[in-house]
Amino acid sequence: MLKEFQEFISKGNVMDLAVAVIIGAAFSKIVDSLVNDIIMPIIGAIFGGLDFNNYFFGLSSNVHSATLADAKKEGAVFAYGSFITVVLNFLILAFIIFLMVKAVNNLRKRLEREKPAAAAAPPPADVQLLTEIRDLLARR
């Protein structure tokens, strides 16, 4: 069983997947920063100058705070602003991945078009010899 596990781990696809997960996690932090630090403040300014993450309403009568963190301490809250931020993160990430896949597919198509046509394989030696003999006889 240990040997099978070692073979599974050493396959190229598993290693590629591991690298992709690690890079994806790092890329996710970049997208989170883009949404939270650049896009959401702009949207918040359009919708009244509030932090979009702090859009919520309390589900209990004990919730009276203006910030989501304090409201969560007071009771249950419906944090729709945080949900919208996460959905926006997902849409931006999905769009970027779409653009990357599209670029790779276009590159593959371009490389296939530019690939020179494979030269016809030379005929076997005996066929080549017979062709030369035929051509010599035809000249006589």
TrEMBL record:
List keywords of the entry alphabetically.
Cell inner membrane, Cell membrane, Ion channel, Ion transport, Membrane, Transmembrane, Transmembrane helix, Transport
Lineage of the organism: Bacteria, Pseudomonadati, Pseudomonadota, Alphaproteobacteria, Hyphomicrobiales
Q: Which organism is it from?
A: Mesorhizobium argentiipisi
Q: How does it sit in the membrane?
A: Multi-pass membrane protein
Main location class: membrane
Assembly and partners are described as:
Homopentamer.
Pfam families assigned: MscL (PF01741)
Q: Which SUPFAM superfamilies match?
A: Gated mechanosensitive channel
Q: Where in the cell is it found?
A: Cell inner membrane; Cell membrane
Q: Which residues cross the membrane?
A: 12-31, 38-57, 77-101
Record family assignment:
Belongs to the MscL family.
Reported function: Channel that opens in response to stretch forces in the membrane lipid bilayer. May participate in the regulation of osmotic pressure changes within the cell.
The cross-references to InterPro entries, in alphabetical order and at most eight, read: Mechanosensitive_channel_CS, MS_channel, MSC/AndL, MscL_channel
Name-wise, this protein is Large-conductance mechanosensitive channel
